């Protein structure tokens, strides 16, 4: 039987458990009818279940060995196999309507995938998939958690994040060295931030660059040493103590000081 060899440089670990694959596919059922984009289908363990969904499925695959395999074993995909790098795709040219994003995401680009999701947040009402357990927990973490960080804040500003279940390393070929986690992100009702969105990102990233320090110290690259705003009690806190709303307020303070 023809198979595709997993490639380390692509971060490939092929899921072999069909029940888990079905469970991942079912995470988009609340968005039935929307088109679906799967990242990195490999040999189609998830694809076979997504094809049974109501929404039309498109897959994007970088592995040149996987593409002919998919064409042969899933002819129903037709011309909806996009050969290329998801991170370089212009999703506006692929979809004219909202769509669901899903996949067993390559470990080596999982964070980059979620940063790209932010660029298309109004086009993607639901994003689900499997990533490293550590990254999944970080995305879902709330204020006060040691794993709460840049991705947590930026994603939770626009999405409700839910950690669904853990997947053992034993159900992959080859087995990864870490466990995996399945997450679901659903677009929330937020239309706009109460502050400048670009500066919000900068403030979040700057504050977490020195996450063990108080904001009075970590924000110095933006505000300098003698900023009068440091008298505000928010600067006594560390970044992991701040909610999304707190970061909006911190951004407004920062904006008033530097603009």
How does the SSE layout of this entry go?
Layout: E1 14-15, H1 18-25, E2 36-39, H2 47-50, E3 57-61, H3 66-73, E4 81-83, H4 91-94, E5 100-104, H5 110-119, E6 126-132, H6 133-140, H7 150-156, E7 159-167, E8 172-173, E9 180-187, H8 197-208, H9 215-218, H10 220-223, H11 244-258
Helix pairs in contact: 8-11
What is the residue-mean pLDDT, rounded to a whole number?
94
Helical/strand content category: alpha/beta
Total strands: the figure is 9
Calculate the terminal CA-CA distance, rounded to whole Å.
64 Å
CATH topology of the largest domain: Rossmann fold
Low-confidence runs of at least 5 consecutive residues: none
Strand order of the largest sheet: 4-3-2-5-6-9-7
Main β-sheet: number of strands, strand sense, barrel status?
Answer: 7 strands, mixed
How many distinct folded domains?
A: 2
* Estimated radius of gyration: 20 Å
- CATH homologous superfamily identity of the largest domain: Vaccinia Virus protein VP39
- In helices, the fraction of residues equals 25-40%
Topology pattern, helix = H, strand = E: EHEHEHEHEHEHHEEEHHHH
Number of helices: 11
Rough shape? elongated
How is this structure best described in words?
This protein is α/β, with parallel strands linked by helices and 259 residues long. The protein has two domains: 8-187, Rossmann fold (3-Layer(aba) Sandwich), CATH 3.40.50.150; 197-258, Helicase, Ruva Protein, domain 3. Helix content is 32%, strand content 17%. The chain is built from eleven helices and nine strands. The protein has helices at residues 18-25, 47-50, 66-73, 91-94, 110-119, 133-140, 150-156, 197-208, 215-218, 220-223, 244-258, and strands at residues 14-15, 36-39, 57-61, 81-83, 100-104, 126-132, 159-167, 172-173, 180-187. The strands form two sheets. Strands 4-3-2-5-6-9-7 form a seven-stranded mixed β-sheet. Strand 2, helix 2 and strand 3 form a beta-alpha-beta unit. The longest helix has 15 residues, at 244-258. The relative contact order is 0.12.
